[in-house]
Amino acid sequence: MGDSAQRLLGLGYDVLEQRDRDDLFVMGDAHTADKLRSDGFGSSVETAMPPSQREPRSLADTIYYGGYRTITAHLAHLDEVAQAHPELATVVDYGDSWRKAQGGGGYDLKAICITQKGPGDCALTPTAPKPRLFVMGQLHAREITTGDMAWRFIDDLVGSDLKAMLGSVEVWVVPIANPDGVEIVESGGDSPVLHRKNANGTCSSGPRGVDLNRNAGSHWGEVGTSTNKCSDIYRGPRADSEVETQALESLWRKLYRDTRAPGDTAAATTDTTGAVISMHSYGNYVLFPWGWSTQKTGNDAALRKMANDMAALSGFRAGQPGELLYNASGATDDWVYDDLGVPSFVWEIGASSGTCGGFVPPYSCQQDVHWPKVRSMLVSAMKAASKPY
Fold this sequence. Notes:
- Its cofactor is Zn(2+).
- By secondary structure, the protein is an alpha/beta fold.
- The protein has helices spanning 2-10, 32-38, 71-84, 98-101, 144-159, 179-186, 243-255, 300-314, 321-324, 332-340, 364-384, and strands at 14-20, 23-27, 63-64, 68-69, 89-96, 108-114, 132-136, 170-174, 275-280, 285-287, 317-319, 344-348.
- It has eleven helices and twelve strands.
- The chain has an eight-stranded mixed sheet with strand order 5-6-8-7-9-12-10-11, sandwiched between helices. A two-stranded antiparallel sheet has the order 1-2. Strands 3-4 form a two-stranded antiparallel ribbon.
- The two termini are 33 Å apart.
């Protein structure tokens, strides 16, 4: 099974975070089944998605597909929360998307810092007085549940009992880490475009862009990536080539101390604080480094305990990517732990099948199905951030 998954990834297929006993799932177009057979794999069509109808969208639009917020709505939401709660929230512009950097539209890359503000809070320095939890959504644009979870978390932090925790922890949220990609997704309206990558580059026979979760400079260009620009797991021309990746890494270096010596087996020190969560979908997993290999990190026992604690609250499964799915290199969670020693996790939110499964569940699934599970894990991560190791 693992060998088949790695071979599929090596050939550039979009292998989903989903298994059914010996079956793997691949997303593709009308020609993918034939290509799979020509590459020596048995194949059958599990689900046929209706074609997306790309349509011009107005900057005034705030929702699509039954209630999901547009990128412009997300950015406006950050400003609205900061204006309504100046004692708690600060918005930080940490860079530009690829299209904006090219002068062709695009968006600011924005984060919001939420805490009971005191001296030194929300400053772009790794010597902050409080431990920091960092949460981001929609690094992969089509994973629309994650942006909605980020929106709900922001509102919950400033309007519920979670506010009481903000005296001892600083929370950073990037609701949309890949805004150019999200603009492509939402252009489909009630049939969202299942675009994964950013918007950099062209391709004659597939989606444009670079996979931002294969572009980070930790073991970049190794297993589970593709050099094919049309592949959904295209890693980019070099490590950290994308402005979105560069901006995130720069922000993390400003927020966290480096507590880990170089080398794949070195452990971060016990005085490390904070945690980084990258929300993805789907599969109901809590994943932690290393993702490029099944080799254990120097802090494996602590990472595994944190992951198991979160998974126990949500019913998810916890493990390294290679233990549960497949190995892939150049991921942001590996980079955070590799470069800084900070515990980092990927949450794959949502079941593989059923009404509320997949990349684009009905919006009604968010409040009653996904949010209660995700909220419990977020609270667990907030509590663990002060002394994760």
